[in-house]
């Protein structure tokens, strides 16, 4: 018990508790296993067209498959019969992949990259 009090007293800084004092880990020097989750989402002005939660990172193949499924869904809803479909993307490297751009071109989708 005294050891825990000493540890907490050492971790008090000028502005309050340091993160080590709030940690529930037995060994504050050990790092938790890195874990990431990626969310792919496609939205229109009216609704969410598609969403996919992926454990880990997203590469161009996963993004291309997601985009293909979203475009199939939009085509089934008749979105391509109006003025057209604009795909607004940021400048992530996977968005600039040649297969992704070729898929958009083959489907007749306008691609617009956000600054």
Q: What would you say this structure looks like, in words?
A:
By secondary structure, the chain is of the alpha+beta class. The protein has 2 domains: 1-31, no CATH class; 57-113, no CATH class. It has helices at residues 2-11, 19-22, 60-76, 98-107; strands at 12-13, 16-17, 37-43, 48-55, 86-89, 110-113. Strand 3 and strand 4 form a beta hairpin. It starts with a helix and ends with a strand. The mean pLDDT is 81.
Summarize the structure.
The protein is α+β, with helices and mostly antiparallel strands and 115 residues long. Helices cover 36% and strands 23% of the residues. The chain folds into two domains: 1-31, no CATH class; 57-113, no CATH class.
Features:
115 residues; alpha+beta; 2 domains; two-stranded antiparallel ribbon; 36% helix; 23% strand; elongated
Mean pLDDT: 81
Query: What is the beta-strand fraction?
Result: 15-25%
* Count of individual beta strands: 6
Question: What is the overall number of helices?
Answer: 4
Cα-atom Rg, whole angstroms? 23 Å
Please trace the helix and strand order, writing H or E for each element.
HEEHEEHEHE
The helix-and-strand class reads: alpha+beta
Q: Supply the number of structural domains.
A: 2
Distance between the termini: 55 Å
How does the overall form come out from the CA principal axes? elongated
- Which strand order does the major sheet show? 1-2
For the largest beta-sheet, the strand count, sense and barrel status come to: 2 strands, antiparallel
- What proportion of the residues is helical, as a percent range? 25-40%
Poorly predicted sequence stretches spanning 5 or more consecutive residues? none
């Amino acid at each position: 018990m005294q050891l825990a009090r000493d540890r907490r007293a050492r971790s008090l800084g000028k502005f309050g508790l340091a993160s080590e004092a709030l940690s529930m880990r037995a060994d504050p020097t050990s790092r938790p296993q890195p874990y990431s989750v990626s969310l792919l989402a496609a939205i229109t002005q009216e609704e969410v067209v598609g969403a996919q939660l992926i454990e880990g990172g997203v590469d161009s193949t996963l993004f291309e498959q997601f985009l293909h499924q979203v475009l199939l869904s939009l085509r089934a809803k008749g979105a391509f019969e109006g003025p057209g479909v604009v795909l607004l993307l940021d400048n992530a490297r996977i968005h600039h992949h040649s297969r992704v751009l070729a898929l958009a071109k083959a489907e007749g989708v306008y691609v617009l990259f956000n600054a």
